[in-house]
Design brief:
571 residues, eight-stranded mixed sheet, 18 strands, 3 domains, 2-enoyl-CoA Hydratase, Chain A, domain 1, single chain, 37% helix, 22 helices, alpha/beta
Length: 571
């Protein structure tokens, strides 16, 4: 099985390409045996570049690809059939010389327009495939580009097909003026109809993707990926620099920058492109609806393991264990429980929050959306993860992926482990209260199964923001509380040193919460969870999650939401 978890580039380890020097030509593959890499300047044997997916074997610089090459790389052999060939650009403004220029570009590129669309199979999944080509007026969008893309989405709706679109553009087609501008709204409207039909759209941003294309169909995907180092932005870097009179930072508007800022889901190497796209297409097919899940035979006869009461630990002892640095964190459980995991990034608005680890996982063939609060293992990682305390953009990332899961009827599993939500000036400025409130509002009504598992600390609203679920499970030595014992003692008794006493009366242990029906199942810990105990605990969780999925398939989407509402209505 293709493993996706290592396919996305780790943005922290990247050195994004700097801006092109003035007058530097865009990288293309010319005729001849030898070619020069425009990034590192090395002379390369062309055949080596072709074999390496048009990536420099010396410096990993990306060459721009021709339409036919891209289609050949992505589509299963012999399956691509072009659509809308008759839709070509005209001259709506009677701009002098435009028709002649169109003719010249068509002769040079052997393309009729800047985008080619059609149907094919990718990994056996029938798909609408579109490819933009920078050689044709820098991939700019005029009437013909907009019309081809709009028709492609409309036909995809009729035939119930996903869309994969390789985006590349310098922006609007200036020679077509206001007609070009209108294509932004037209293509966005077509994407909306496709989305409303419950169909999957995957734009892949290549170098460059700018202007009106960035501000329309390129940024409207269910998942948005980009090639390494691709220039992506609304205004061009030169325009920005001239406007603000400042030197732009290295890597500004590059693909890795957009991952860091939460705008796109990930950066994907070209050599892994087809395998990843094929897996995503299969994952988002109607056959992966939670209602079609089948319980594997090996799990059918097993029952939920009962937790034995171990009374040697008081509430404070469990608080200390829930905070232990030896305790497995969210990412550990994801690696142990699921067959594969593809991390997705960002809230699409401000930043990717490291405190929230989220993406799509696979369990016995069933895709699930996994979201968890992630603590670090050392000081550096804890700073990056903010000790598992999510910011507003973290909760908004979580909600974005929950709504994505709902659209495709994919179950949601959350792992809760946080001292609480991030607090501070920046968190308040960006609306921490609203972000958590929005999660509570939306999670109640999600029409797909939701399971929450408390694996460590369950701190106040920061924990609840990921725990509005059909079922809530809790590890034996986890805690779940309105506030930390220290905070509780400080507020009620004006003495934070009475934390141990507070823990004893707050009813924060798994057993306490099971008695109050806040928790459905207490996950046994024969020994306190650590690296040695992890495989055994994870295997037990895996079996119970599989049975949970099998049980929920019997419940309609509307009833799932109503059951969740009634669960919390009774408290």
């Amino acid at each position: 099985m293709v493993k996706l978890k290592d396919m996305f580039r780790k943005t922290a380890d990247l050195s994004p390409r700097g801006e092109k020097k003035k007058g530097e030509k865009a990288p293309e593959v010319p005729q001849g045996l030898w070619i020069k890499c425009p990034k590192c300047g090395e002379m390369l044997y062309k055949e080596d570049v072709v074999k390496n997916s048009y990536v420099c074997p010396k410096c990993s610089g990306y060459f721009r690809m021709k339409t036919k090459t891209r289609i050949r790389m992505m589509a299963d052999p012999g399956t691509f059939q072009e659509w809308e060939e008759a839709v070509v650009g005209e001259n709506p403004l009677d701009y002098p010389g435009y028709e002649e220029k169109l003719s010249q570009v068509r002769e040079k590129t052997h393309l009729k327009e800047a985008v080619t669309v059609g149907s094919c199979t990718i990994g056996g999944v029938k798909t609408v495939l579109g490819v933009c080509d920078a050689r044709f007026f820098m991939g700019s969008m005029g009437y013909a580009v907009g019309e081809r893309i709009a028709r492609a989405f409309e036909r995809a709706v009729q035939e119930k097909l996903p869309v994969v679109l390789f985006c590349c553009s310098g922006g609007a087609r200036m020679q077509e003026g206001i007609i070009s501008l209108m294509q932004m709204a037209k293509t966005s409207a077509a994407v909306k109809k496709h989305s409303d039909a419950g169909l999957f759209y995957l734009p892949i941003l290549t170098d460059p993707t700018t202007g009106g294309v960035t501000a329309s169909f390129a940024m409207l995907g269910d998942i948005i990926l980009a090639e390494p180092g691709a220039l992506i932005g609304f205004a061009g870097p030169r325009v920005i620099a001239q406007t603000i009179g400042q030197k732009l930072p290295e890597g500004f508007q590059r693909a890795e920058f957009l991952v860091e800022k939460g705008i796109i889901d990930g950066v994907l190497e070209r050599k892994e492109m087809k395998a990843t796209v094929a897996r995503l297409l299969e994952t988002h097919s109607a056959e992966r609806d939670y209602r079609k899940y089948t319980l594997p035979k090996e799990y059918q006869a097993q029952e939920t393991a009962a937790s034995q009461e171990r009374g040697e630990l008081d509430a404070w002892g469990r608080v200390l264990l829930s905070r232990s640095t030896d305790r497995p964190v969210c990412g550990d459980y994801i690696r142990e429980i699921f067959d594969d995991f593809l991390e997705l990034h960002g809230d699409r608005a401000f930043r990717d929050d490291g405190a929230i680890l989220a993406g799509i996982a696979w369990l016995n063939g069933q895709p699930v959306t996994v979201i968890g609060q992630q603590k670090g293992r050392d000081v550096k990682e804890n700073v990056h993860r903010n000790f598992g305390m999510a910011s507003p953009e973290g909760y908004r990332k979580a909600l974005r992926l929950m709504k994505q899961a709902e659209k495709f009827h994919r179950p949601i599993i959350t792992f809760v482990d946080t001292p609480g939500a991030a607090c501070g000036i920046e968190a308040e400025e960006r609306g921490q209260g609203e972000a958590i409130a929005r999660n509570l509002l939306e999670m109640i009504a999600l029409k797909t199964p939701v399971l929450s598992i408390l694996i460590g600390e369950g701190g106040s609203g920061g924990a609840l923001g990921l725990a509005v679920a059909n079922e809530v499970w809790m590890m034996e030595n986890a805690t779940y509380s309105i506030l930390s014992p220290e905070g509780f003692a400080s507020i009620l008794w004006k003495d934070g040193k009475r934390a141990q006493e507070a823990a004893g009366i707050m009813k924060i242990t798994a057993r306490d919460l099971q008695e109050k029906k806040i928790v459905d199942w207490v996950i046994p810990e024969e020994e306190p969870a650590d690296a040695q105990q992890l495989p055994k605990i994870a295997e037990q969780m895996r079996g119970q999650i599989i049975r949970f999925l099998a049980e929920q398939k019997k419940v309609s989407p509307t009833r799932l939401a109503e059951n969740r509402y009634q669960r919390f209505r009774e408290f």
